[in-house]
Design goal:
By secondary structure, the chain is an alpha+beta fold. It has 15 helices and 33 strands. Helix 7 crosses helix 8 (349-366) and helix 9 runs parallel beside helix 13. The relative contact order is 0.10.
Length: 678
């Protein structure tokens, strides 16, 4: 909400902040990890800090506005800072300017703020829109620490160039920050890295205010922009293909160079390099959803888990495109990555870039097959649903390649489908289906697996009509088509689409995976390892929108005394894994000897995507998840860190609460003969 202590814009010296860049006492969500394991490639999944004995669960948030103590602490720091109006020159020190705190019109509890960073580089200013309390984003993955929307201003004697805009909900505050910086001069150049609304929501405003502005973007980008500006409005669009011929001289030595970077994570994305300042503008790539006053990557440990989670959700489905973009920009010389979300990467820029390469190479190397994902950009919820499906497929070891029917010709469709062992189609509009889907079918062989789902666009080509010719030609449809019964997808629908992606990928890799597991382990080792005995447990989670899921677990052990902690090994293709990120809550239900069989049978069944695992089960809800009525004991836990161990995540969690229902009972035990199965 609007707080009086935020009314005056202030300049905050970086030395007045703790190393995290946050103000003391601001309790704003996930507490981060208490120490961390190192993830593959050296990146820990978890960050130090956070008060023990508390748990951030996705559906329960703690914000500074609800905490008098944190508000008072923030106010004291603010009052000690130097007051300065937005637009004032503060070039004497590395500083940033915070505008007044406002709130979202339709949700007054959601705090919004604009920050100006005037000394990003010579003639270069960052404008960061801080969305403190946003808790869901894009493909409907939950946010623990809000997010930011970053845009950048390059001002020379000859030109004024704006790189990206912001979300339209920041309209008034954004222009209040930008207008003083312009000082009456027009914006002459607008670089649109891609057209997702959180970065291009104010493009219409820029074109309205400055009709002479030159708008730079890829061919696909400029096509999409026509739907974002006012009806009948035209703009001077300049198509960027990449190469010296497309370079733009802004004057004073600032030359912009462009590279198309499609599918990171939209088909219209491009990167921009300012040769003079050594800043590369990447929009979504290399970003993270992490909202803090500190504009830079000052505290690396605090950011790593957010950076990896963002990559896994948005970039990993496009691993091949990530590597292509890195290859195309390998000759670029730069020391700053100006991202579209989260802190600007400068302190450890090379490390951040190398993680993308390492993770993407590992994803492709581990992929047991490739699925071509066909969709229509801008139609219904096709982007979100296809991305969430791909996330599920990637968890099970399948590479995904996206084909936007609005951005490719027939030959490109044929080339993209070549070598794909699976075809996934998100129903396009009837008009697009009529001209494009026949090409996709003609390029598909009868040995491929096929999956079809609705895009929830209002004019979807019927899924049965799309699927029929594939089935009649002999293609296998291992997962039933998905339909959405509401006007827009619900959290349960997103769960259903992600689980469908995992099921589809498992069907593609079933024979290969079973053989590989058996062949990878020496028989003697398998028998010896199988002698490690364990208990039997049910890991249960409950998230927003009625989403509930669970799994049988046996690889569980106590991991620490102070704080009290446990580890749980979770296969990467388990549905529950998506709800066990750092800061999430879950319940470990401990099964009782002699009473576990029925529970085991229930939760070991193979469920169709999105089916409620707790239907017909007696349980009580807690802040961390469901407690089974027949559990011998239970532990309410909060995830503090994650360790990448190949085909599993080892989840380290702090125990928040616990109880024993039968003091005389004994824990059910699990004994194996060999270690090639659970």
């Amino acid at each position: 909400a609007n707080h009086s202590d935020f009314v005056m814009p202030v300049v905050v010296s970086m030395t007045s902040l703790p190393s995290s860049g946050r103000l003391p006492g601001a309790a704003r969500g996930s507490l981060g990890a208490r120490g961390s394991f190192g993830a593959r490639g050296g990146a820990p999944q978890g960050s130090s800090g956070g008060a023990r004995g508390s748990c951030h669960v996705r559906r329960v948030r703690v914000s500074a506005s609800s905490s008098p103590a944190s508000g008072a602490s923030r106010s004291r720091v603010m009052m000690a800072a130097v007051e300065a109006p937005l637009g004032e020159d503060v070039s004497a020190e590395k500083s940033f300017v915070l505008g007044p705190m406002t709130s979202q019109a339709d949700r007054p509890e959601k705090r919004l703020q604009v920050e100006v960073v005037p000394n990003l580089a010579e003639n270069t200013t960052a404008i960061r829109c801080l969305d403190w309390d946003r808790d869901r984003f894009d493909i409907e993955f939950a946010l623990a620490e809000g997010t930011t929307y970053n845009s950048y201003l390059i001002q020379t004697a000859e030109a004024t160039c704006l790189v990206d805009t912001s979300h339209e909900k920041f309209r008034d505050a954004y222009w209040a920050a930008l207008d003083p910086l312009l000082n009456g001069k027009p914006i002459t150049h607008l670089v649109v890295s891609h057209t997702e609304p959180d970065h291009s929501g104010l493009v219409k405003d820029v074109v309205d205010k400055f009709p002479e502005v030159k708008v730079y973007g890829t061919k696909v980008c400029l096509t999409f922009l026509k739907d974002l500006v006012s009806e009948g409005q035209t703009f001077d669009g300049v198509t960027v293909k990449g190469g010296e011929a497309d370079n733009v001289d802004l004057g004073d030595g600032h030359t912009l160079e462009f590279v198309a970077a499609p599918n990171l994570h939209w088909p219209d994305t491009m990167f921009t390099l300012d040769r003079k300042t050594g800043i590369v503008y990447t929009c979504d790539a290399f970003g993270q959803h992490f909202c803090t006053e500190d504009p830079y990557d000052t505290n690396v440990d605090e950011l790593l888990d957010h950076y990896r989670f963002y990559y896994d959700c948005l970039m990993r489905p496009n691993s091949r495109s990530v590597l292509t973009a890195l290859r195309k920009t390998k000759e670029w010389e730069y020391d700053t990555i100006a991202v579209g979300h989260g802190p600007i990467l400068r302190k450890s820029m090379t490390m951040w870039k190398d993680y993308y390469a390492t993770w993407s190479e590992a994803a492709l190397e581990a992929a047991a097959g490739r699925a071509a994902v066909i969709y229509e950009h801008g139609y219904g919820y096709a982007e979100r649903l296809s991305q969430i499906f791909a996330k599920g497929a990637n968890k099970a070891g399948i590479e995904t390649e996206f084909i936007d029917l609005t951005a490719v010709d027939d030959q490109e469709v044929i080339e993209a489908l070549h070598g794909a062992s699976g075809v996934v189609i998100f129903s396009p509009s009837s008009a697009v289906a009529e001209t494009k889907l026949s090409t996709a079918f003609a390029a598909s062989s009868s040995k491929r697996k096929i999956f079809v789902a609705e895009s929830c666009g209002g004019d979807d080509e019927p899924v049965d009509s799309i699927l029929r010719p594939y089935v009649e030609s002999g293609c296998d449809c291992p997962v039933d088509p998905l339909r959405i019964k509401t006007a827009e997808p619900t959290p349960l629908d997103y769960q259903k689409y992600e689980e469908a992606g995992t099921d589809f990928a498992q069907a593609m890799t079933k024979k290969v995976a079973a053989t590989a597991r058996k062949d990878a382990m020496n028989a003697g080792i398998a028998k010896s390892l199988g002698r490690i005995h364990s208990g039997l447990y049910v890991v249960a989670v409950e998230a927003e929108g009625g989403v509930r899921t669970a799994m049988i677990a046996s690889w569980v052990t106590q991991a620490s005394f102070e704080p009290l902690g446990i580890t749980v090994a979770v296969a990467k293709d388990r549905a529950v894994e998506s709800y066990m990120q750092v800061g999430d809550g879950f319940v470990l239900n401990i099964l009782e000897e002699g009473k576990a069989d029925a529970t085991m049978k229930h939760f070991l069944k193979r469920y169709a995507p999105g089916v409620d695992r707790f239907e017909g089960i007696d349980y009580d809800s807690t802040p961390c998840g469901p407690v089974l009525g027949n559990a011998l004991a239970h532990l309410q836990c909060c995830v503090r860190s994650r360790l990448d161990t190949g085909d599993h995540w080892v989840i380290y969690a702090e125990v928040i609460e616990g109880a024993v229902s039968n003091p005389q009972g004994r824990t059910a035990s699990h004994r194996r003969v060999v270690a090639t199965y659970y």
